[in-house]
Amino acid sequence: MAMSFPVTRRAFIAGAVGAALSAPMINRGAFAFEGAPAKSYSRRAVDLVAASLVIDMLAPLKITMSEDYVAHRLTDAEAAEFRASGITGFHNAYGLGGPDARGQAMEYLAGWQGFAGRNSHVFTLVDSASDLDRAKRDRKAAVIMGIQNAEHFDSVADVAVFRRLGLRCAQLTYNSQNRLGSGSTERVDGGVSDYGAAIIAEMEKQKMLVDVSHCGDRTTLDAIAIAKGPIAITHSNARALVDHPRVKTDEAIKALAAKGGVMGITGVRMFVRASDPTNVGHMADHIDHVAKLTAIEHVGIGSDADLHGYDDMEPAEYAALKGSYKASYGFRDKIDIDGFDHPLKVFDLTEELIRRGYSNNNITAVLGGNFRRLLGQVWG
Questions:
Q1: Which residue from 151, 174, 212, 329 has the least number of CB within 10 angstroms?
Q2: Which strand (E) or helix (H) includes residue 225?
Q3: What ranges do the domains of the chain cover?
């Protein structure tokens, strides 16, 4: 999801990120966190997050409609909060489109890369996969610039232009039809167009990750088939567990895995479960499903929220967000899921995977190892 307001040139998604955790030990092997005294986690969970390269493949830095946020300098408290999150890689992307999509995309990239530079004590930009490794060593948050649409590609040549400007991942469509293919909430899915096929080929040539998270069913399958190498579903869930147009069929998940792709599991409530309660355990059900359907190597995290989640938004912005989607999205009172709606959510998910008997190696793969492998392969 990650924000699809009726987009204007300045409807940015902004934010603050973190990596390096600070975890003073308390009794019985549990760890408490500075700034979150009510939270404690097992030593195994804390050690696993510390040892893992955690990559959230849909993590808008801040969910806000404020046009001025990109000029924001993080407070010490904000910086500390994000450093404690345990997350190193943040795929900062949101949906934009319309007649001025190209201009919007350029302004978005300039604004957020400027934001990262302004807060360089916390952030570093990602050019190649090795930058994620460096960020982990340097205890910084690595920002992967992405866009949840491809309407900004006015021509095939624009793929190379936007890669030079810092774009490393793009969805083929958002929820609606565009020149490339159909979105997940369109009544009819016509699949990938000739122009879409040309864009996929050029994205692979330019070493830009193809994402089909918001694409319709046929467009998703077409894109996987057309691509020569692996692509991504950065943030979606399994339709076998919840009937929603924005989640993926088993056919699509298996096809993605067969090409070597990775699927990020999201914590958006209506994509996780059809009724309440909906919590981090139900999110882990989707990880289980993809791992059992394919293999553990093909599943990761794409939370589709910033560190605080959607339910922490200003009321007017929250209402505007919900009102900008079709009825088929099926919003409930809350958007975030219980236990995955705060800056330390990765630790809650890690604890859940431990409870389910996942090995350390498999947890590390889900937290980011699988996406690190994919990004290294695609980006070269």
A1: 329
A2: helix 217-226
A3: 27-379
DSSP string, 122-187: TEEE-SSTHHHHHHHHHT-EEEEEEES--TT-SSTTHHHHHHHTT--EEES--SS--SS--BTT-S
Residue with tokens 């882990």: 284
Give dist(CA 366, CA 368) in Å, integer.
Answer: 5
Nearest to 172 by CA among 186, 187, 152: 152
- Cβ atoms within 10 A of the Cβ of 293, count? 16
CB atoms within 10 A of CB 73: 10
The answer to whether 235 and 304 are in contact (CB under 8 A) is yes
Task: Give percent above pLDDT 90 in the chain.
Answer: 87
pLDDT of residue 266: 98
pLDDT category at 67 given cuts 50, 70, 90 is confident
- The CATH number of domain 27-379, selected from 3.20.20.140, 2.160.10.10, 3.30.1330.40, 3.30.300.30: 3.20.20.140
Whole-Å CA distances, 22 to 75, 97, 203, 345 = 17, 39, 39, 15
- 217-226 and 250-258 helices, crossing angle to 10°: 10
